[in-house]
């Protein structure tokens, strides 16, 4: 049974809360998954009151919710909302908040989630404030702290953040969100690999030629220059989401599905990634920035012309990486990762290319060259699982063509659940399997830290690509062989 709790959202009037969290709560309400007495307390600086906040949330949900709005469900959700005005960077606010929650204890259940929907620079401050007045202590119910990426800026700052979080909170109380882990297809990777006998025997360096993980989006930085200028594609996407996808594709089967067993296996993958030294970064990583171009029929400006971007900025909006995992299963098999803003399309997929058959049996027939098999996992917008096989063309001659075998989930529909719905429910249930452990975050930074350091010294020039394209062609230099190339579609 899911226990009731008070869900405190710091930064309740900000983008994340308005666009993701509250709409996710609406859908959970609709699915009757929220505990009966759960209350949601929004904390923010604005001089709003509960009534006004509820109106704002109602408007946001009308815009963001999937399908037709159900007013009864919305009303039920709004009843749970309470606004608390205050500056969460000062300890007095937390004292008042504590007194408020205690005074109204018939409204606010004693288990508490603290969700940091705030600037990363304030994570440590708020965790400290909570701890300083004992809101971390679990005397009369549990306490959970939820933080969103970015967890630090590089290895050193990530370690410093961990020290701050751990000052008052224990690891099992901390839920670090990487929303990719809440995506249906990402969870499906484990089921696909470990609930079927067919693929695991092939899932290794003997049969797999290479693996690609792609995240592309047509969107630009959407007015977030302040955040993006100091971040860039490598930190924003690869350090977190893409490396997480890689761990699930590459990990060994855990002994069971408990959170620690699962996370132990993911950490082993990260630890086994061959370190890239600062001097060899050029052979393993490539970055670029978009210039103006067209997305569909819309002309869009280049990165340097986005509002708030410095005219000489070398922040990368595209990053590609080659990694090797030096373990028994994957030695010498390249994993190619890439991500970009203002790309030709919005899509995330994992593409696995198998090796060629050992014998060219059909050499003397009209089949000159056999295409390799691919296994394709579409993460979004369409969840899809497809295997490409060679089959004979109907007719008198021996010719082949590529046939796609689609798993039943391959619809043309977009994902039905938002990752936040799954993750918020897991926080309330106390299941941290889909959240990052401190060592996972640290090892992920270890992987990319040398690249960040090398790029930090190259401030004069950055290659470019046209908005609306698939990125710069020079990125092909990362491939180990001539017959490897980016796979852009499923
Ligand atoms: C976020 C990044 O973590 O993920 C954004 O900060 C990016 O820059 C987003 O656009 C992509 O997430 P999704 O779920 O839309 O693929």
Summarize the structure in words:
The chain is of the alpha/beta class and 490 residues long. The protein has 2 domains: 143 residues, Rossmann fold; 298 residues, Dihydrodipicolinate Reductase, domain 2 (2-Layer Sandwich). 33% of the residues lie in helices and 21% in strands. The mean pLDDT is 95. The site of 6-O-phosphono-beta-D-glucopyranose has 4 residues, from loops. Belongs to the glucose-6-phosphate dehydrogenase family. It holds the Pfam family G6PD_N.
Please supply descriptive tags for the structure shown above.
21% strand; 7-stranded mixed beta sheet; globular; Dihydrodipicolinate Reductase, domain 2; 490 residues; Rossmann fold; binds 6-O-phosphono-beta-D-glucopyranose; alpha/beta
Distance between the termini: 40 Å
Number of strands: 18
| Total tally of structural domains | 2
Strand content: 15-25%
Question: Judging from the principal axes of the Cα atoms, what is the shape?
Answer: globular
In round numbers, the mean pLDDT is 95
| Estimated radius of gyration | 24 Å
CATH topology of the largest domain: Dihydrodipicolinate Reductase, domain 2
Discrete helix count: 13
Are any ligands bound, and if so which? Answer: 6-O-phosphono-beta-D-glucopyranose
């Amino acid at each position: 049974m899911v226990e009731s709790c008070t869900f405190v959202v710091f930064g309740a009037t900000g983008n994340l809360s308005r666009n993701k969290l509250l709409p996710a709560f609406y859908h959970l309400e609709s699915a009757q998954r929220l505990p009966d007495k759960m209350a949601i307390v929004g904390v923010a600086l604005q001089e709003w009151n509960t009534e006004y906040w509820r109106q704002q949330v109602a408007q946001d949900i009308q815009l963001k919710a999937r399908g037709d709005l159900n007013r009864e469900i919305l009303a039920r959700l709004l009843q749970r909302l309470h606004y608390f005005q205050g500056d969460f960077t000062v300890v007095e606010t937390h004292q008042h908040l504590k007194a408020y929650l205690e005074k109204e204890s018939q409204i606010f259940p004693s288990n508490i989630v603290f969700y940091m929907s705030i600037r990363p620079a304030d994570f440590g401050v708020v965790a400290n404030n909570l701890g300083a007045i004992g809101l971390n202590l679990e005397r009369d119910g549990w306490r959970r702290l939820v933080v969103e990426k970015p967890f630090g800026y590089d290895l050193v700052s990530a370690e410093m953040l961990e020290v701050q979080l751990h000052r008052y909170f224990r690891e099992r109380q901390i839920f670090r969100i990487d929303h990719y882990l809440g995506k249906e297809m990402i969870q499906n990777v484990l089921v696909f690999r470990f609930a079927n006998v067919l693929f695991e025997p092939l899932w290794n360096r003997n049969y797999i030629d290479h693996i690609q993980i792609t995240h592309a989006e047509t969107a630009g930085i959407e007015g977030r220059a302040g955040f993006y200028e100091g971040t860039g594609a490598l930190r924003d996407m690869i350090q977190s989401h893409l490396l997480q996808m890689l761990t699930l594709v590459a990990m060994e089967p855990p002994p069971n599905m408990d959170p620690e067993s699962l996370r132990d296996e993911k950490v082993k993958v990260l630890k086994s990634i061959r370190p890239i030294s600062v001097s060899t970064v050029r052979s393993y990583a490539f970055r670029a920035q978009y210039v103006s171009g067209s997305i569909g029929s819309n002309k869009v400006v280049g990165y340097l012309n986005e509002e708030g971007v410095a005219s000489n900025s070398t922040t990368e909006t595209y990053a590609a990486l080659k990694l090797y995992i030096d373990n028994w299963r994957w030695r010498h098999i390249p994993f190619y990762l890439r991500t970009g803003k203002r790309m030709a399309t919005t899509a995330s997929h994992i593409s696995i290319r198998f090796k060629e058959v050992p014998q060219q049996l059909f050499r003397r027939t009209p089949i000159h060259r056999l295409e390799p098999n691919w296994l394709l996992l579409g993460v979004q917008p369409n969840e899809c699982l497809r295997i490409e096989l060679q089959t004979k063309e109907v007719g008198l001659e021996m010719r082949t063509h590529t046939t796609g075998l689609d798993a039943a989930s391959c619809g043309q529909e977009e994902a039905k659940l938002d990752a936040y719905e799954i993750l918020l429910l897991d926080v309330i249930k106390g299941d941290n399997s889909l959240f990052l452990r401190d060592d996972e975050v640290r090892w992920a930074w270890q992987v990319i830290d040398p690249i960040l350091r090398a790029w930090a010294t190259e401030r004069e020039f950055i290659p470019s690509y046209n908005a609306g394209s698939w990125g710069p062609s020079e990125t092909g230099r990362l491939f180990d062989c001539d017959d490897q190339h980016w796979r852009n579609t499923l």
